[in-house]
Predict the 3D structure of the following.
Amino acid sequence: MCGGPLCDSLHDPGPSGIGVTPGGFRDALPAQRLLLPELLVAAAILAAGFAGILPFSATPFLVIVGVVSLWLRGQGPRAVGLAFRSDWVRTGSVGIGAGIVYQSFSLYIAEPAIARLTGKLPDVSLFAPLAGNIHFLLISLTVAWTLAAFGEEFVYRGYLLTRIARVLGDTPRAWLAALVVTSIVFGVGHQYQGLSGMITAGLGGFVFGLLYLVTGRNLWVSVIAHGTMDTVGFLLLFLGKYPGV
């Protein structure tokens, strides 16, 4: 049994126009013939990124795979929740609010609790030069809103979560399983922050994915929440107020 707004969003097309309907997976089989091969390609790119073979990260390469996948299926950005919307104020408000609330929860509750289990807080030494450095802050914010917020949300929530759910049967349980899988993968992608950082990032990925689903797969909410969370973190690092640093 599945009820509540989460499961309703999995069946309701909503603004993104990609609702899950009974039999939809079987009816769409001709259009899904490349589903498993493309996920294998995505997995190979992720593995190369985790191994440090790719420059920067796997994200830019997976953005390309996702865009090509949409093109081959005759779909556009709307299919992953990037539609032009009439409710931008609500979308922005929910995204900003969620980003601030989750960052506060993460910094002051989740990370200290995780550190008690692992013995260490997430390693943010990579961002240590941010302290008092306005030039590095501006660069970091640019990367945060492009590669991280937009790129990672498109890849992990808009693309991978959706495609994995299709492979698993396109049911509410399949979507929830895909949410868990992509959250774990997202966490592993933050291995440079140590075990605590991976766990924290995985929790963040789960929250962003949940936002994506409960808002009717409105990816803009997740993008704004992710960007807001990173912005708050970078500002705290810039001001020398980041907990534990």
Notes: Residues 119 and 196 are 9 Å apart (CA to CA). The chain is about 65% helix and 0% strand. The chain has one domain: 21-238.
